[in-house]
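Issue 218. Parser rejects a valid record. Input:
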Amino acid sequence: MKVIILGGCGGMGRYASKTISSFDQIQMLTIADLHKEDAEEFANQLGSHVKGIGLDINNKKLLHEALRSFNVVVNTVGPFFRYGYEVLKTSLDANCHYIDICDDWEPTERMLELDHLAKKRGLLAILGMGASPGITNLLGAIAINELDEAETIYTGWSMDEAKPEDISSQKQTNAAMIHGIEQISGKVKIYQDKKFQMTKPLKEIEINYPRRGNFKASIFGHPEAVTFPKHYKNLKASMNLVHGDILVMTILRIINKLIGLKLLSKISAARFLDWLERNSSSNNSEHQNSLPEIYALAIGSKNNKLESVGVSYDGAPTRELSMGDATGLPLALGLKMFIEGEIPIRGVISPESQDIDHRKMLLEICNLLGIRDASIKIDRSWEC
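Output the parser choked on:
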């Protein structure tokens, strides 16, 4: 199997690259980056079957020519609202399977429309195989399948938990921060009352999590809101939520206001958030009276009663996890399961697809993340 990783020595990509390079099924692994020297230097650390190349994905002709030599494209180049659709389309045109960590809802909608092209060419594309989206989608699918019929799915994550990457080839403003600012400004898409609607990001809603209680969380512009209704047609609502330290959430709301008033540019806001994240201490403790750091909550009918199910995972991390770990390692595991024939479907899908073994994938991700004694934690309202 010949695999190319776009952005493979970046903040997210280098974690995926290192893990993928250890897979026995990989005959040749190519690390592609805008900066050739960085790609070559990093590739030299991973083994003789890994090489680095310089590649500008903005040049569609060169990108197409480069991808034709590979079986699978792994895309970690963000922000995806700029690059996601075109890279997927070029990958399919080059007859390559595809997997990414796309975390923007706008390109995800367009990328899902390429489903017919992928099926026609016998190719698989998996969108959003990171943390959120990614792990959250797996948790959501498990929660939905606990109910007789799910009406609402919330996927959620903590703003406080992820530690920033120490090393990256990225020379400009952090793409993750550019993405974050994009998804807390303007309007974002959610699914409510069986239809897609635009709403203000960071709008607070109250949720009741079984065994934990009532909490406020805020709407965030991640793709889970638009992908779950594709795979679960009976849903009436789908949203992605974020929670975090009061100060952090207040800062985000102030930034949202300033951008709306045109007193702050998005790029300046992204640079400020990047600086703030790197100069803030994180509190990684989780308490019983708080939401899990990453979770899904499904609401619907069970035995003719309205019930809810919260799904997270238990276990003890053996090391401090960065955003790169939490995003890049699920991506690597998704590729591995595809290579091993465990995802036989073709088309454009997201991780909650019913053609994926959600429980197996989740536990294997936990193993890759170094979470000791990992287990899936399911809190059911009818057992409280």
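Fixed in the parser; the record now loads. DSSP finds 13 helices and 16 strands in the chain.
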